[in-house]
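@channel anyone free to eyeball this complex?
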Amino acid sequence: MHFKQITIVLTSCISLINCAVHFERIYGVAEEDLGKYQRTPDDLFHCLDGNGVIPYSALNDDYCDCADGSDEPGTAACPGTKFYCDNHGSVGHFIPSSRVNDGVCDYDLCCDGSDEYNGGIECPDRCEELEKLKESTRKEEIMKIYNAFQKRQEMIAQSLKNVTEDTVTLIENQELYNKENEELDKIKAEIKELEEIEKRSKDFYKLMYRDLKKDYKEYIKKFKKAIEDMLVIKSMEGNDKIDSNVLHDIVKDYNEEILEELNKPKIVPKKEQEEEEEEEESIEIIEEEREEEEEVNEEISTKQIPNDESFEFKPISPKNIPSSPPPKDIPSSPPPKKVNPLPPKDIPSNVPSSSPELNNSDDEEEDEEERLMYEEKKEAHNKIKDQLIALRSKRSTIDRTARDYKRTIDKIEKKLSIDSGLNKIYYSIYEKVYSLKTSDYTYTLTWGKEIKQKEEHGPLTLLGKFKEFRDNYRTVIYDDGAQCWNGPKRSVTVNLICKEQNEILKVSEPSKCEYVMDFGTPGVCDNSDIIALKKPEDTKSKEINPEFSEDMLESIREILKDSPTQAILDEDEVETLEAENNNSEQNKKHDEL
Amino acid sequence: MCVKSEEFKRCDQSGFCTRQRAYADLVEKTNTQNASPYKVIPNSIDFNKKEGLITAKVLKTANNTLDNATPLEVYFKLQLILLKSGSVRMKFEEAEDNIKTRFDVSTYALENNNPEPSKKIDTKNDQNSSTFTFNDENDKTTLILTYNPFKVEIVKDGQVVIGFNQNGYFNYEEHQQQNENDNISEEEKQRQNEINELIENTQKDMWSETFRSSTDTKPYGPESIGFDITFPGFKNVYGIPQHTSPLSLTTTRNNGDNGYNEPYRLYNLDVFEYILDSPMAIYGSIPFMLAHKNDQSAGFLFINASEMWIDVEKSNTDTLTHWMAESGKFDIIFFVGKTPKDVITTYMDIAGKPPLPQYFATAYHQCRWNYNDEADVLSVDQKFDEYNLPYDVIWLDIEHTDGKRYFTWDLTKFPDPVALQKAIADKGRKMVTIIDPHIKVDNNYYVYKEAKDQDLFVHNNQDKPFDGWCWPGSSSWVDFLKPEASKWLISQYDFEKYKGSTEILYTWIDMNEPSVFSGPETTMPKDNLHYGKVEHRDVHNIYGELYHKATYEGHLARRNNEDRPFILSRAFFIGSQRYGAIWTGDNDADWNHLKASIPMTLSIGLSGLSFCGADIGGFFNNPDKELYIRWYQTAVFQPFVRGHSHIDAKRREPWLYDDETINLVRDALYERYNLLPYWYTLFKEASVSGIPMTRPMFFEFPENEKLFEVDNQFMVGSDLLVKPVLEQGQTEISVYLPPSEKWYDYKTHKVVQTNEEGYLTIPTSLSTIPVYQRGGSIIPQRLRHRRSSKSMKHDPYTLLIALDEKNEAKGQFYVDDGESFGYKNGLFIYRTFIFANNILNCSKYRSPDNINESHNEDELLMISERIERVIIAGIDSKSIKSIQLVTNGVVKSLQFNVESDDIVIIKDPAIEMKEVDWKIEILY
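replying in thread with the prediction:
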């Protein structure tokens, strides 16, 4: 059927009780706007923007005359205009005029079906039915919202409690931490003092060691020279002045000397007793010295003694040197070498006639004195060292304790500094874990930290790490998740929806690797959720105050208590609530000042 | 992004292309253009005047090129059929063939395989030729058959328009027994010169061919067909889609115009990330070529579904084309006509015209790989309404199925597809699901089980069901050559059978080249076997169309022929237009792809497949705001309008961009919706004449040589010139408006002034869509903004009249119920509006299909709406005294507004479209 010019000007007021002025009823015009659509005495209509006058009969004639489209409130003739559905028995609504006679019953806003009247489709009035349906669910809805608000208060309280507790813990820990730090400073000073002493003691001790060492080296050198000389003499043709036995004895003496040296007390304390720093130091000294010794050692061991005499020369391996304890990983000394005879050589004419002096009794006495002094010093030095060890151990214990406090402090500070929403409402669920199992995956949200996805028998994938709240705390962004093959790094936009419980409601992936999670939480409930519940008088809704106050909850409670069957906030009440809310806010600010 | 070119053959990697090209080169090198081995045996010529049929024997003596010991003599049968339309069909085959029956694709590809022969034929014979002059005195066509060398020429007005074998390239590889001693010895080879190399090439890969890791066994040996078709006097040829090259085809040898060295290839292939400006084969193939010069047009059709290569060589005066097909029949048609439209009409009379689509199909389609689940679909639907964006169809890609088992649903994501479709239907919208031709090998999948049990799959070269790899993994392909297989597929669309399908569910078929991930060149091995032992090589290019056809018939059957099917296909061939729309496949979010969408859709359109479009925004990657807007502004003026994106691309519904984008996309979409009455009339015209809805400029201005190579602006019908903004950051645009006409700005209705040469330069903002209305036209519109085309069903019309220099204009308007076949029984309104002498006249339009409009007033009332507004531009509006409507002698005075000196708007004549013989008089 095509469009029929229908008479849409009624002459009676729909509701006699509320109707103060007797207006002509114009199709598609809200009652409150009827005044603007009245017939002028000369039967004209003035376009509402003031630009243009048309015959009154051109109103709703399905042809757009006025530039602002105001002459066609009841048809789809003018672009960008609105049509009013009266929805008698329910709440009136505006819909875009483009939805008038478009073959679709827009019952969501137009329950009376008045948007379809050209016969293209039948849209019977369903206001009563839908209103009943709405009524039947409204109380339930209100209860849910009420519960959600209560939960919200609980969450705030819980969060406040947690913040308080954590703050107390923080302060306690800070105090303890400071105390430990003071103690630590004291010990550090003591250690420092003692270390000075120890250093001086060690310097002295080191000097002594070097002296002793120097003597010893000279002795070795001398001895070596003597042997070499004798070997030279012996190798001379026809020279039998030197008996092999003599030579043998000398070598034997030498070896005994060496053994004796070996039995002397160790100069450097054993490694295990050392503190780390010292160890490094002493190792340095030892290293230097060992190199020198090896030179000496080598020179001797490579000298050749005729093998027809076949005496054994005990080589001086680094291990046998009276110096530092050997590094643990040095292999044991090589087996004694057979010394090969020297090839015949020209013997120099000025051969020394006697063996060199190998010993000096005066020196021996001096040595003994020195050694005793050295022992004493060593004793004293070790005592200092023991003290230091004890102090240092104490220092690490305190340090550990202090660090424990610091960790607690850092953790609480981080938790406190992270955005937990308005009134820190999400503080109490920080790091709490929520899961949702879908057909393919299990999603896990660790509040304030991360979101992960687990495929059954599959890998665990990081979808995102907490980044920030957005959209006035209605969404939360988790990003920088695992890299997608052929795509971006995964991320999740979490939409917060007012619900009684904290729970994941739904997860979807509208674009590859860009997830959207609906998370139910009392934390996000605000005034708009209450306004959405009230009997919608019309859609010209008020400015919504995102803040929520205890007063508001109280109001809902009262409404529910007083008239459970009319558990609906009407506009006045909401206005009152808002006013109260604003007042309390102002008071709060006032108090703060 | 770039195609992996090495995965697809070049000519020198294709045995028959190498052989045929070498043959042509040999002819050129040896100057033997006039020494064809083929000779017509004069006394064999027989002329059946009643059937317009000339038959003759042709003898091939093969000793002039090949150095064979024994000269070969082979006899052939030649048929020439002179058609009433002035066209000539020519067939050629072995007189005797004991090896293989060549596959005749014409019964599948052509709607009218026996076109009416010409009755009036005069013949004249001389020593070396026969001349046949046929058709009526006013439009005579002459065919000259030359005996030696064998050639055929079509003459119009004393000039040869098309020639066959004028250049001596004709080389028909008759079936032969493999000769073991055929090869030339090694020693000889060394001595051979350039010519001998060519000779060698003429014998390349005759008995098998290996490309990459696949070997084609070629059990029947060489059987290719090569020949030259010349267009003397023509500098421009068009068609042979599908390629990404310019509208006017370029030379393909010796670094041709665009550096082409490869012939245009026709071989339906699923080419991942295809490149632009290339003769490479992609998803579809139509071996139809159009030639045009300012006073003459010609066309050529090669009815053959095997792999084909076409070389184009243009000189300053002529165009030579070299056609090479791997196998199948030699079956060609020459078309001649005064204009491109004449040629297309005769071609479409034979190949078949596109059926009238449903109204919704001409509106906007919203697609994505993938809308994930029911909630996702409903949310997208809701958002379109929320932002007052119109759309008609929501699409579901492969992820909606249970593991790529087509005809099933992933019930975790779509637990109640029927309820979902009901919700979409309640808004007046439709849904499309994808159904691909590969069937998952799974005995628990009823579709596979049924097809396997009935042996309905294509076989491999061992004659066992072929198993290849595609989306679901291991898969088999239905053999649509087998009549039972098509019947079986048709039955799959029964509502009972396809669970979860409802009457508003339509179908998208993809991957029907066929795409076989594991196959050579991502398709099926050529030695696969179809029903009747037909090799895949013989039917490859029509496989997609056969699937398209069966799907179309499935949709007809499920509604007992009461509902017009809507099927979108990716692969296509001659005749695919009879089964639905096609799109240009997997394009990229790139400005060059936007540009390429114009020559691509125009080429496909002029080859018969006018209902086509390119994915808006580009399938791969992410269009930025500007490209996104420009793409919508272009696409709404192309026949098939669909937004689509890859699964790896970001979501890109308009509301995910900024407010400006939403507003400009809305404006662009309403350009489409406002013009739907005009579009629908054009779709009607195409269904009757085959002339595409969107046309290259030269279709409308065939005498204007400046337009022969223009492919960045086009015509929508005869009356709207569209020059989309195709450059990033473009701040002004130059439009060529043919000076033969008066032009109006489509939006403001103001006459535009070009410079002397016809160029108009205008600044372009992001909202600019340069569209111009031709003076002398009347365009029907619907200006009310609705959420879908169905919601506009009862909206009144506006007539937009732009007067020409003589203050005249005319136009047509067609409407029917937009859904059923009722129009075949006269349930339609078809009007002609003529404005002359200050009077707008309305009368019945007598469509060439000769179906009479119903006389049942009540029936027509169902589809009739009133005219609410008449806008006349280019009129002397100041001195109008009054305007009146005269119906059946009753005069009614009409209100009007003088908008400017030359524009008047008549308010609501309130005359129903069903009314005829009324007039509106402008009185001075």
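from a first look: The mean pLDDT of chain A is 73.
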